[in-house]
Amino acid sequence: MSAIHLHFDVPGDDFTRAGEASGSTKKRLKALGYDSDAIRRVAIAMYEAEINMVIHANGGYCDVDVYPDRVEILLADDGPGIEDIDKAMQEGYSTAPDNVRSLGFGAGMGLPNIKKYSDEMRIDTKLGIGTKLYLTIKVH
Amino acid sequence: MTVSEFIDKLNLKILTDTGDLSRTIDDCYIGDLLSWVMGRAPENSAWLTVMGNINSIAVATLADVSCIVLTENATLDEDAKEKALAHEITVLQTEENSYKVATKLYELLK
Ligand SMILES: Nc1ncnc2c1ncn2[C@@H]1O[C@H](COP(=O)(O)OP(=O)(O)OP(=O)(O)O)[C@@H](O)[C@H]1O
Ligand SMILES: [Mg+2]
């Protein structure tokens, strides 16, 4: 049973709105009185995944299920997919174009951050079809 | 130390004034690559950067830093300013570089 369900559309190529899904989720969890460390981990993991959809996949959507002991997040896009997941997971690996690098993206740290801050992470990706990222963050 | 004391001691310019100036600063982080900062900046730190765009504000909000300091007079974009005001993020500015600011902050936090 899911206590609370949140849904967000993440528009592609709109940097002014990127961070809205993670920001709203953070606010909501705060209001619900969740532990601040868990909230921080959700916010960071979700922002990185959200911004990846904006930069690399022309947007997508995000579903969040909030349970008493964990937060489950699905981020789905129908972008180009990830060719080599092992490579993409490496710190420093990035295919970000120059125009977004000048905005401060492209360190190749997003996916490693997501891994670091989530308890479970699974990537389903198909070239030319899209990417689904499933995250679980436990509340301690 | 509070953000407000930090502002006074280093004579920083306040670019957005809706944030909580009584917030504690107990650490410092320097960086311009956003996911680097997002993953590494400690909570309640002063974040020194030259990156004054709207995404910096999102990072500051989500990573829970106490304030952003735009060093070397780096500018704050207009849409970033609006977002910072709305999200109550304190953005400060100084002509000094990040190294100088960090060494002064280090002395203050000792
Ligand atoms: N949703 C996605 N769709 C397609 N490719 C992706 C997606 N997410 C990540 N990637 C690929 O994986 C690479 C690594 O992603 P990661 O988030 O670690 O770094 P980055 O986004 O390039 O830079 P940073 O996150 O540090 O700003 C990306 O450069 C991109 O090639
Ligand atoms: Mg990324």
**Biggest beta sheet summary of chain A:** 5 strands, antiparallel
Counting copies of identical and different chains, the oligomeric state is heterodimer
CATH topology of chain A: Heat Shock Protein 90
User: Hetero groups bound?
Assistant: adenosine-5'-triphosphate, magnesium ion
**The CATH top-level class label of chain B:** Alpha Beta
Alpha carbon gyration radius of chain A: 14 Å
Helix content of chain B: 40-55%
Mean pLDDT over all positions of chain A = 95
CATH class of chain A: Alpha Beta
Number of domains of chain A: 1
User: Helicity level of chain A, as a percent range?
Assistant: 25-40%
Physical arrangement of strands within the biggest beta sheet of chain A: 1-2-3-5-4
Return the average pLDDT of chain B rounded to an integer. 97
What is the CATH superfamily classification of chain A? Histidine kinase-like ATPase, C-terminal domain
Return the string of H and E elements of chain B: HEEHEHEHEH
